[in-house]
Amino acid sequence: MKPFVIERAENLSAMLNAFSPQHLNEINLPRFFYDNTMPIRMGHDHKSPLNALFEDCSMLYGSNAHLLSGHGGCGKSTELINLKRRFEEDGQPVGIIQSELEMNMHFANCWDIMLHITDGLCNIASKNNIELPKATLRAVYDYINKDKEVIDTTYEEASFGIGVVLNLFASIKSSLQFGEETRTIIREKMERRASDWLRYVAEIADTISNSMNGKRPILIFEGLEKIQPYERAFEIFQYDTLAKMPFPIIYTFPISLTYDPKFAPLESFYKVRFLPMIKVSNSDKGENKKGIDVIRKIVELRADLRLFDKDVLEELIRSTGGVLRHLFECIIDASRTARWRGAEKIEKQDAKLALSDLSIKLSRRISMADYDVLKKIYRDSGFRKQIEDKDSLLKLMQALVVLEYQNNERWHDLHPLIAEYMKRQGVFDENN
């Protein structure tokens, strides 16, 4: 399948491509990645969780196990693709696992991740033309197909090598997604002889490191925070072997679970980083002009700003609260409406209709039972920095009804469209 390629929009018809909800891939990254969001995310010019990850993973004796967390739509995936690029430019052998594409997010467990770790290492070796010990490759292959053949594979003995093992992994990964019997067999084998498998992983990692002048391989699991249900992430990461690999691994993790007391033990094994939202307002409800300007520059990379009527883009940015996913969705919807009515740019009526549709979608996620906490967040700037009812707050944040920000301290606020919805419902007025 051909990789998705973005083209900058010079007319309304091109907006659908330019603002695709997909994160930037490695082809699109050089042209469309805006690399100056951290000061406004962090509230500090010299703080960055991605820079910290880069340094920790690049050091020979740095931390090996990392969890990156952040709310949906904040840009984690694109930042991780850019981090991969930085590792490669530094000569680090790195691989990225697109968890949603390669794993069944409803059934994945620690053994599935272990298999993907091994596959990821083999792919790094293949990409860098590193010859892995045939004895190790044979042991991995026989481990999978010994006793009861899991995948029907045929090859000529003379051609046995990393290509055969990678083909085996490709078949197994497909079967793991859809085949319950295969999942059961593989997991039982790996759990029964876990120490053997860990030895193979270490041998492959050591070979890569020795072939790359001591630079250790690095793996990034992107999208793993979308595992379903979220609580299963505790079961996966409490298997502390995932934190004890002899090389760096970055896993994404559901942000809602970081508020749970059960998360505390994981911090003994994993270095935890958070990627905050881009702020378009402050905790006192004042407009954050720098944040709006940062997002406008992100949009300008993808489209000619003359396609937006005066003040329309700023209204879209303010109304979507720094959630880039929501902003892009509204730009696409508004551009369609404008195009269908024969216009050449997005006008206020198009933006209003797109924002109305998003407001309807968000308002379906709340009920009258949520009104008290929503009113407190809206009315009380002090309350925005507190957590009174954690379960309710986390539910609302998962739904992106309440947004969380950082400015040397954590605080949260209503999604602007939810605030407007509550005003229209008469729950609170403009001045209360």
Please characterize this protein's 3D structure.
By secondary structure, this protein is an alpha/beta fold. Among the domains are: 44-274, Rossmann fold (3-Layer(aba) Sandwich); 368-424, no CATH class. The protein has 19 helices and seven strands. The protein is globular, with a radius of gyration of 24 Å. The relative contact order is 0.13.
List its salient traits.
two-stranded antiparallel sheet, 5-stranded parallel sheet, 19 helices, Rossmann fold, 432 residues, alpha/beta
SSE string, helices as H and strands as E: HHHHEHEHHHHHHEHEEHHHHHHEEH
Strand segment count: 7
CATH class of one domain: Alpha Beta
The class by helix and strand makeup works out as alpha/beta
Considering DSSP H and I runs of 4 or more, what fraction of the residues is helical?
40-55%
CATH topology value of one domain: Rossmann fold
What percentage of the residues does DSSP assign to strands (E)? 5-15%
Mean pLDDT: 89
CATH architecture of one domain: 3-Layer(aba) Sandwich
Structural Rg: 24 Å
**What is the rounded distance between the termini?**
54 Å
Give the helix tally.
Answer: 19
Strand arrangement, major sheet: 2-3-4-1-5
Poorly predicted parts: none
Q: What is the molecular shape?
A: globular
Query: Biggest β-sheet: count, sense, barrel?
Result: 5 strands, parallel
Task: Set down the secondary structure blueprint.
Elements: H1 15-18, H2 29-32, H3 38-42, H4 49-58, E1 65-69, H5 76-89, E2 94-98, H6 99-102, H7 110-127, H8 134-145, H9 162-178, H10 180-192, H11 194-211, E3 218-222, H12 232-237, E4 249-252, E5 271-274, H13 289-302, H14 312-319, H15 324-340, H16 348-363, H17 371-379, H18 390-398, E6 402-406, E7 410-414, H19 416-424
Parallel strand pairs: 1-4, 1-5, 2-3, 3-4
Antiparallel strand pairs: 6-7
Helix pairs in contact: 4-5, 7-9, 7-11, 8-11, 15-16
